Amino acid sequence: MRELSNLAMTLKGSIIREMHTAAAGMTDILNFTVGEPDFVTPQPIIERAYKSMLEGKTFYSQNRGILALREAIHQHHKEVDGTNIEADPEDNILVTIGATEALQLALLATINPGDEVIVLTPCWPNYLGMIAVAGGVAVCVPGYEENGFAPNPEDIEAAITPKTKAIMINSPSNPTGAVLPKSTIDEIAGIIEKHDLFALVDEVYRTIVFDNQKAASLTKYPAIKDNIIFINSFSKTFAMTGWRIGYVIAVPELISKMTLLHQNFANSIFVPAQEACITALEECLPDSEKMTESYEKRRNIIVKGLNDIKGFSCVQPGGAFYAFTNISEFGMPSREFCLKVLKNTNAVTVPGVGFGKSTGRLNLDHFIRVSYATADDKINEFLNRLNDFSQKFFASK
Ligand SMILES: Cc1ncc(COP(=O)(O)O)c(C=O)c1O
Fold it and tell me: Per-residue confidence at 20, pLDDT binned at 50, 70, 90?
């Protein structure tokens, strides 16, 4: 066989997959790795897709996505969602294969090889892979635990060089659940304006915010509206991860270039799934709110539970469904720690080291990610097993 490409040879696999492999063949597993709701998609969404299939809507759609869905997205952001974002269905919206494709297309449309992209860390691991696919260089800016993992805007400013082209912002965040404070978003908006950066604003968890709060959003700043590439998805909001539908809203020129890229990657999205997303926006927001309520209850159980166990500590996440938990008292690297927990408790968690690069004082090896989008009884069982593990561990010291 001839040599494979440098890209193929250098891309790294997900650490989450690695943990699944380690757990393969084990029984009585408690899985706290997966970043997806445990709920099945609400029934009206499923029924709409079924109806659409029975009507024979089995053909390619427009590359940008069916107009009716783009209109529903426009309506949603204009009237329901409070996003101050221009989402003209004709020019500003592209429907994609989840937020994943939207993020990759946004990078491919804005980054030349060697350009730098600022990534607020801890981050979703795919960001680093996507930047590599686009030939860019990821520059990680740390967020510290004592600030609820919010970055210090001065650190962002200090990381900017003449090669910096874009910044990726994800609030609420995977893996920390951090919801960036309005004051931080204000300062980041100022930096984006000052340095004329593209801002990839990934708000796939925007509806999963707790304590009656709303997440501050970079979409609210008129001065940078042309810099914003707003990325959203049906995956987490409506428990539709497997349907693979997301979208991007940006200025027309960017959307038309991303549409050309999308033609080459995907052509278009399955029409019954697109129609089902219209039903999601029009009828299923109450279902989505109920799911958020249940994540909040689970957040309360897991954060208290973890903080009550010796060796574990966890700052209160304001959204999403992740607890980025400090395990530094156990005195071992996060991968080794997760493997030990797996062996002793059959619980699968994800090593913090997979969520970006450790920079500044941020040592990702001091953390694990616990995804708590799972049933209460499993959460309680998980906490019991971790408690046993911790007691035995510290007793043997
Ligand atoms: C921060 C973040 N962005 C994007 C995605 C991808 O979402 P989608 O299922 O819409 O591709 C995920 C999925 O876990 C995520 O955590």
Answer: confident
Torsion from C-alpha of 20, 23, 27, 29, nearest 10 degrees: -60
22 falls within a domain? yes
Give the domain-ending residue among 284, 317, 349. 284
For residue 11, pLDDT over 80 is answered with yes
Cis peptide bond N-terminal to 175, omega within 30: yes
- Which of 259, 284, 309 lies at the terminal end of a domain, its last residue? 284
Task: Indicate if 236 and 371 belong to the same structural domain.
Answer: no
Distance 363 CA to ligand 1 centre (A): 24
pLDDT tens profile 48-80: 999 999 999 999 999 999 999 999 999 999 888
What tokens were used for 365? Answer: 């090896």
Same domain, 219 and 297: no
The candidate with the shortest Cα–Cα distance to 265, out of 107, 90, 112, is: 107
pLDDT at 265 over 80: yes
Q: Whose CA is nearest to atom 14 of ligand 1?
A: 35
The whole domain housing 27 covers 6-41+286-395
Is the shortest distance between the CB of 83 and ligand 1 below 6 Å? Answer: no
Are 125 and 193 found together in one domain?
A: yes
pLDDT recorded at residue 36: 84
Q: Is 233 in the pocket of ligand 1 (CB under 6 A)?
A: yes
Q: Which atom of ligand 1 is nearest to the CA of 35?
A: 14
What is the total count of domains within the chain?
Answer: 2
pTM of the model: 0.96
For the chain, give the number of residues: 397
Confidence category of residue 37, pLDDT binned at 50, 70, 90 = confident
Give yes or no for residue 188 CB within 6 A of ligand 1.
no
Q: Tell me if 1 is assigned to some domain.
A: no
The secondary structure of 213-274 as a DSSP string is -----GGG-GGGTTTEEEEEESTTTTT-GGG--EEEE--HHHHHHHHHHHHHHTS---HHHH
Residue whose CA lies nearest to ligand 1 atom number 1? 174
Judge if 190 and 329 occupy the same domain.
no
**Site to substitute for ligand 1 among 96, 169, 180, 204, most atoms within 8 A of C-beta:** 204
* pLDDT for the residue numbered 40: 96
**One domain, residues 180 and 258:** yes
155 and 133, same domain (yes or no): yes
Structural tokens at position 96: 């994609």
